[in-house]
Each structure stands twice: as structure tokens, then as C-alpha cells.
Amino acid sequence: MKSESFKLLKSKINILNDLNDKINLIEWNKDDGPKFESVEEMKEFEKKVINGDFEFVLDDNTDTDNNTILKDYKTTKDNYFFYIYSYKNNDKYITYLSLKNLDETDCIHNIYGYKTDDENSALTYFNKLKNDISNNTIDYIFDNMIIDVDKNINNLKNKYEKLTSES
What does each of the 167 residues of the chain score in pLDDT, given as a tens digit? Predict the structure, then answer.
């Protein structure tokens, strides 16, 4: 059961990512700035920005407080590795959960994410994720992740339909 749930989760994450890419392409092309013919072209541009492959400076932020890890938790449950971490980036506190089947090379990053201006709120979310992983069966965890991903897919479908109808 758990391996089937994990496969289903991965397939739904792919759907979610595809919808998110399509929405990002529309939003990029709506705003001032570069225009793209395809998702691949957009992703290549974003990769260059992230890797700093441009001659000009996009962000003049020299804050040395970038990406300060506040708390992290690593655990393995039924051959699945869970990594939860909260960090501070500039004035924001961000918590993510990543998941890996130890029999595979792929890792699902940032399944759950939470961004806030409040450190206590971020750490409360961190502790909720940690308790959920620690105190539930792998099937229960995957079933709930699938439910949450389905909700996000529906939200993104609605957003995508709205964006495409405006075009």
C-alpha cells in the first residue's frame, strides 16, 4: 500500500508542478520584462538567474542573514526519509518538508511549505509537521499528503482557467 501511495503522490506532484509551470509562464508573459515562448525557455531563464549567469545585478541585497537555519529534523520511517527545516531568509521565516524513498534517486522537495513574518509561527508549523511524521503511520501520512496535493491541484486548475480566460 505505501509504495502505491508514494507513486500516486509523485504523479500528483508532477501534475501540480506542470500546472504551476503553466501559470508561471502566463504570469511572466503578462508582466513587464522577458517574454517566453515555452515553459522550457522560461525555466532556462530562471535557472540562469538563480545561478547568477548574467552580467548585471538583479538583487542588491547584501544581508548576511540569508538562509539561517533555525531548526531541522531528519527521520526515516519505513524506508522513507523525511527532512523538515525552518530557516530565516531576510525578514521571512520559511518551513519546508522534503521526502525521499530510499530505494529511489528522486527526492520530492518542499511538499509542505509555510512562509511567515513571525518566527514563532514558523516553528509552530515545524513542530506540527514533526509531530505528524513522528506519530502517524506512513499510509496515513501519504494519504493526507495526497489529499493536500489534490486541493492544491484544484486551486491551481482554477487559477489557470481564470488566467487563460483573461488572455
Answer: 667 899 999 999 999 999 988 998 888 887 676 677 788 887 787 776 666 665 444 444 444 446 788 999 999 999 999 999 999 988 899 999 999 999 998 889 888 989 999 999 999 999 999 999 999 999 999 999 999 999 999 999 999 999 888 76
Closest by CA position to 88, among listed 74, 72, 103: 72
Taking the C-alpha atoms of residue 160 and residue 147, their distance in angstroms, rounded to an integer, is: 20
Per DSSP (E only), the strands in 68-151 are 68-77, 80-89, 92-101, 107-116
Written as nine digits, the cell of 147 is 489529499
Burial class (CB in 10 A: 0-12, 13-18, 19+), 153: middle
Which amino acid, 16?
L
Give the span between the Cα atoms of 108 and 10, in whole angstroms.
8
Q: Which residues contact 145 (CB under 8 A, 6 or more apart)?
A: 9, 111, 112
CA-derived radius of gyration, the chain: 18
